[in-house]
UniProtKB/TrEMBL annotation:
It is an enzyme of class 2 (transferase). Pfam families: DNA_binding_1. It comes from Congregibacter brevis. Residues 11-92 form the Methylated-DNA-[protein]-cysteine S-methyltransferase DNA binding domain. Keywords: DNA damage, Methyltransferase, Transferase. One of its GO terms (biological process) is methylation. One of its GO terms (molecular function) is methylated-DNA-[protein]-cysteine S-methyltransferase activity. InterPro entries: ATL_DNA_repair, MethylDNA_cys_MeTrfase_DNA-bd, MethylDNA_cys_MeTrfase_DNAb, WH-like_DNA-bd_sf. Its EC number is 2.1.1.63. This is Methylated-DNA--[protein]-cysteine S-methyltransferase.
Amino acid sequence: MTKKHPMDTDLDQRIWLTVCAIPAGKLSTYGDIAERAGLPGAARRVGAALRKLPHGSAVPWYRVVNASGKSSLPPGRNGADRQRRLLADEGVLLRSGGVSVLKRYRW
DNA sequence: ATCTTGACAATTG
DNA sequence: GCAATTGCCAAGA
């Protein structure tokens, strides 16, 4: 059969698993997760996959930030603020964001 | 098959 | 440091 490998259709699955591997108290970037998931250069795919996560998922989506060390979510109580809060609960303070935060907590 | 769309990233002014 | 520009890659329509 001309069917593709199972993995090819489960990009999201693979990305989620990778994100789940980020230890609490640390964080990673979309680009790094993509690379670890075997999708180098597909940082945007990571965002797309995380976006599909059902509310209340066990996947620690909030441990993923952009290369600038900031939240890529839209500002607001259900966006960037929420992410900042969840990270703060694990001892990761983005403060004003920045590369320094990454150097400090990057997985 | 073509065009648009993004929770991105590196470069440039 | 911020905004615009360009490159990226896979999903959707």
